[in-house]
Model the fold of this input.
Amino acid sequence: MRREPYDEAYKAEIVRRVLAGETAEAISRQPGSPRGATIREWVVKAKHKEALKATVRQHVEPRPVVLAPTIEAHRPRRVLVIPDMHHPFCHPDALEFLKAVRDAYKCDSVVCLGDEVDWHALSRYDHDPDGLSPGGELEAALVSIAPFYTAFPDVLVCTSNHTVRGHRKAYSAGIPAAFLKHISMVLHAPDGWEWRDEHRIDGVSYIHGDAGRSGQYAHIHYMKQAKRSVVIGHIHAFAGVAFEGQHFGMNTGCLIDSEAYAFAYGRKNLLPVSLGCGVVIEGREAHFIPMHLDDNKRWTGKL
Ligand SMILES: [Fe+2]
Ligand SMILES: [Fe+2]
Done:
C-alpha cells in the first residue's frame, strides 16, 4: 500500500488522469490510491494554480503593440442563450440538451444569463443543515460545471444574484475587494468566460433579470423599460417570447434539477419550473426551446 504523503509528481500524474477523463472514484479504487475526495482536492488546487498563473501572465507579461485597430466586419450572430443552471444542482441532461440546440440552430456565440452556480450554503435564508458545506458545494459545483467549460469555452456571462452570494457575504462582513478573488478564479473558468452586468449583441440586451421586475411578464416589462430587445433568466417558473413591433422580450426559463434539496422551497410553494434555453438569430428572431422530460424527469432527447 502506498503511504502518504504523496509526492508532487504522483499528484500531477493523478490530476492529469482526471483531466483526461478518468473519475476520481475510479482511480481511488485502485490499490494504494488516495481517497476520491483527496483526488478532487488535488484537481481543484491544480486548476486554481493554473488560473492564478494565467491571471499573473495577463497582468505582467508585455503585450504586442497594436499599431492600428483591427476592423472586424459586422457579422450578425446566432446566439445560444443558457439560463440559470445553478451548479451543482443543474439538470443532469442540461449539457446534452444545450449541445443539441447549439448544433441544431448552428449557434456561433453563447451567452449565459447567470446563476450558473447556486451557493445554497451561502444563502442569507435558511439552508439545508444536511446539505453540503459552502466548501463542499463549491467543490461539487466545480466538478459539475467543468464539462460545460469544455463544450462552451467562450461564454459571455451575466452577473447574477446567486453567483455573487460569496462576495456579498464578504461585503457585508466589511472585507475590502482587494482581499477577494474574481468570480472567474473562484470558478476556475476558462479565459473565454467573461462576466458583465449586461452583454449587448446585435442590439439585443442580455441581463440576468434580477433588477426588480418579476413574474410571468417580467421579460415584457424589461423590454418596454429598455426600449430594445431584452433576454432574461432568473425567473425559473416561466418562459417565453413576446414581440412589440421590432423588439422582443424573452425569458429563457432555467436548467435546474428541481428535485435537488436546494429547490425544496420551490416544491413546497408548488412553483412551476420551465426548463429550456434560448436562441437569438441575428438580433431579430428569438426562440424559447423547451427541454421536454419523460416520466423519469430525464430529457426525451427530442427538440
Ligand atoms: Fe436562478
Ligand atoms: Fe437569479
